[in-house]
Design brief:
2 domains; 9% strand; binds zinc ion
Length: 94
């Protein structure tokens, strides 16, 4: 087993996977995919998709990340509303 990208040879599968985990470029160059959440490596997209479906923890995180823009937006709205409220308060005080 060896990484053709950087010409490193590996004794076992674990160190091979470990190398990919640490070297994203090597992994991507070889066409492997990694689960962003548990750092498991998959040879095919369908394997990663199957993993996402079966691993509840990863799926939960993926959903959380997918919801991030809406979470950020709702927080931003609250901040803006609070800011407007404070500005109005200042204006009415004058
Ligand atoms: Zn490499
Ligand atoms: Zn995972």
């Amino acid at each position: 087993m060896n990484c053709t990208e950087c010409n490193v040879e590996f004794m076992d599968n674990a160190s091979f996977v470990n190398h990919f985990t640490k070297n994203r470029k090597c992994m991507e160059a070889k066409g492997y995919l990694m689960c962003e959440f548990c750092e498991k490596i998959f040879k095919e997209k369908s394997h990663l998709e199957a993993h996402m479906k079966s691993s509840k923890a990863c799926l939960k995180l993926a959903r959380y990340i997918a919801n991030m823009p809406t979470i950020i937006n709702s927080i931003r709205k609250e901040i803006e509303e609070e800011y407007e409220r404070q500005v109005k308060e200042l204006l009415t005080k004058k």
